[in-house]
Write a structure and sequence with these properties.
The protein is mostly beta strands. 10% of the residues lie in helices and 37% in strands. The protein is built from three helices and 28 strands. The N terminus is likely disordered.
């Protein structure tokens, strides 16, 4: 009797064990692997919502009324965690995940970690030889295989930097045209996976980096109301949003456009005072007020750094300051910050939570501002 009982008990235990093995996953990672539905939901959550159509035309604005009271912010000067010493000259920065890449005329390209600002390496060499740089500029890449793009203002050569921080030649945007043909530091931007938008003289061009076809004109920056003023300014692009923004240096005017510049919205704050006579003097342009310095694109917003000062007066009493204006990608003003530093080189994180700049008057040049939601 006892043998029958134990035999039945053993049989029941075997049946339960077999049932458990049948329902267990054959792949030990399957239980922790997200489903396709979950991954799709995360991708949708990371994708920006579609924008309404751009309202075109020219609009006259009063910045005191549209922005309201300035939001004053104080930044944190970052004392670098190692002994790497440098002074950025003619700088521009790119943020890519946990890296910050900075171009400088004495670099040419420095790489730092984020958010710790620890020096990683220097990319490239200064000089006139092959793959060397005289006037280096770094700008973002929309191609996921590259951390950023590198170029030289006067040579027009573009390189992609891979995830191992090695550079690869991609294309030359123009033939050597002398000192009158050059890429502006603030107007060379990505506009899709393998395309870039850049300014030559008073015109914006678009070029593919994957074929030898020359760039084509997409928009003239000339405006009758600006007379003979130099068409200098800053450009920012967002291929996800099909938008680009150009802000003028010597007039408080901003253009919001689609990437093909078929739709254009002009914000005119009616501030200029440019003296055309200064164009014929050595360093004469610095006698004019500087308006916009940079266009800083993020996923959902675009930020414009604004001086409102004559370069000769900046820092005269070591009272450094500037403004940062925030807009949505359809050109609607949102708010304006007044920060207690002055810089021609800043960047805003993709999620618009931090502004990073370099200030020449600090021994450690990096300064970080936390932007309120």
């Amino acid at each position: 009797m006892h043998k029958i009982f134990f035999s039945l008990l053993l049989l029941a235990w075997l049946l339960m064990a077999c049932s458990g093995k049948k329902n267990a996953p054959t792949n030990p990672e399957a239980a922790s692997t997200p489903s396709d539905t979950t991954a799709l939901a995360q991708t949708v959550a990371d994708s920006p919502a579609p924008l309404p159509p751009l309202e075109t035309g020219e609009f006259t604005l009063d910045d005191e009324k549209v922005f309201g009271k300035d939001i004053e912010l104080t930044g944190t000067n970052i004392v670098e965690p190692d002994t790497f010493i440098f002074k950025p000259t003619g700088p521009r920065m790119v943020l890519n995940d946990n890296l910050l890449i900075l171009s400088s005329w004495n670099g040419p390209f420095y790489v730092f970690t984020q958010p710790g600002f620890k020096y990683v390496k220097t990319i490239g060499r200064m000089g006139n030889g092959p793959d060397e740089f005289n006037s280096p500029v770094v700008f973002p890449s929309d191609d996921p295989q590259y951390v950023c793009y590198l170029t030289d203002q006067y040579l027009g050569k573009v390189y992609g930097v891979d995830k191992d921080l090695n550079m690869h030649f991609l294309k030359r945007l123009f033939d050597d045209g002398g000192v009158s043909t050059y890429l502006d530091r603030e107007t060379t931007c990505p506009s899709g996976r393998d395309t870039v938008t850049y300014q030559l003289k008073s015109t914006l061009y678009r070029a593919s980096l994957s074929d030898p076809t020359p760039g084509h004109k997409i928009h003239s920056l000339q405006m009758k109301s600006l007379g003979n003023m130099p068409f200098i300014g800053a450009l920012g692009t967002n291929a996800e949003r099909n938008r680009m923004v150009f802000a003028y240096k010597y007039a408080k005017i901003v253009k919001f456009m689609d990437l093909e510049a078929k739709q254009v919205r002009i914000l005119n704050f009616q501030k200029s005072g440019f003296d055309e006579g200064t164009m014929h003097k050595v360093d004469g342009l610095d006698a004019n007020m500087t308006h916009y310095m940079q266009v800083l694109p993020t996923r959902d917003y675009v930020f414009l750094t604004y001086s409102g000062q004559v370069p000769y007066d900046v820092g005269k009493d070591k009272n450094y300051f500037m403004w940062v204006e925030q807009y949505d990608w359809n050109g609607n003003p949102i708010r304006r910050f007044k920060i207690k530093d002055f810089s021609i080189n800043a960047i805003v994180s993709r999620d618009a939570s931090r502004l990073i700049l370099t200030a020449y008057y600090y021994d450690d040049p990096f300064v970080v501002y936390d932007l309120p939601e």
